[in-house]
């Protein structure tokens, strides 16, 4: 019984010792975010100049070649001609669309062929799944496109870079056979 009494007294003693000490919450002080200070801008070196776009007079380059082509053996006037887009096989940037337009204009002024309209060429390229930026430059693709458009001739042109000298090479091909009727080369300045 002593033990029971001792346990009860211990429990009462412990129960009376409970303190009601409440802990205050830690004070919160708002902190305003600091503004980032931009490092002082120091004048840097000169901004490098972008490469100058070289203006090429395509008309003066292609005109003599068109003159040569007009007098080539085996060329019949009045036939349908596809002027395929000029291919750029250089490591530089050239405005080949302007070159293609210059060739088309020179041939149209000469009035030796019926040139296929750009809109027809664009539509045919879409139908055949060829993009207008197709740079593979295969003669077989040019001939296939010309056959699709029922052209008699195709003018294939490519710009190459040989030892720093850029050249344009033009080839007039018979669509039925793929035979090259005329070939000419000119310097691209």
TrEMBL record:
Location of region: Disordered: 23-52
Pfam family, one: LPAM_1
Subunit-level organization: Interacts with PBP1b.
GO biological process, any: regulation of cell shape
Single Gene Ontology MF annotation: enzyme regulator activity
InterPro entries: LpoB, Membr_lipoprot_lipid_attach_CS
Compositional bias per record (Basic and acidic residues), positions renumbered to this chain: 32-45
Localization in the cell: Cell outer membrane
Organism per entry: Xenorhabdus beddingii
Major location category of this protein: membrane
Family the UniProt entry places it in: Belongs to the LpoB family.
Signal peptide annotation: 1-20
Bilayer disposition of the protein: Lipid-anchor
Protein name: Penicillin-binding protein activator LpoB
PANTHER family: PENICILLIN-BINDING PROTEIN ACTIVATOR LPOB
Summary of the function given for this chain in its UniProt record: Regulator of peptidoglycan synthesis that is essential for the function of penicillin-binding protein 1B (PBP1b).
Lineage, opening ranks: Bacteria, Pseudomonadati, Pseudomonadota, Gammaproteobacteria, Enterobacterales
Chloroplast listed as a keyword: no
């Amino acid at each position: 019984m002593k033990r029971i009494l001792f346990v009860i007294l211990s429990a009462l003693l412990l129960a009376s010792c409970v303190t009601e000490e409440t802990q205050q919450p830690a004070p919160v002080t708002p902190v305003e975010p600091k503004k980032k200070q931009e490092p002082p801008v120091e004048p840097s070196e000169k901004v490098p100049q972008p490469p100058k776009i070289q203006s090429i007079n395509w008309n003066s380059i292609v005109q003599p070649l068109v003159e040569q082509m007009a007098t080539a053996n085996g060329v019949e006037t009045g036939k349908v001609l596809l002027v395929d887009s000029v291919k750029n096989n250089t490591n530089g940037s050239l405005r080949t669309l302007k070159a293609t337009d210059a060739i088309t204009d020179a041939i149209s002024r000469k009035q030796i062929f019926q040139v296929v309209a750009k809109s027809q060429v664009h539509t045919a390229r879409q139908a055949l799944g060829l993009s207008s930026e197709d740079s593979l430059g295969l003669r077989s693709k040019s001939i296939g496109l010309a056959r699709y458009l029922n052209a008699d001739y195709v003018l294939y042109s490519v710009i190459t870079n040989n030892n720093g000298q850029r050249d344009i090479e033009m080839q007039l091909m018979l669509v039925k056979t793929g035979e090259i009727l005329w070939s000419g080369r000119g310097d691209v300045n």
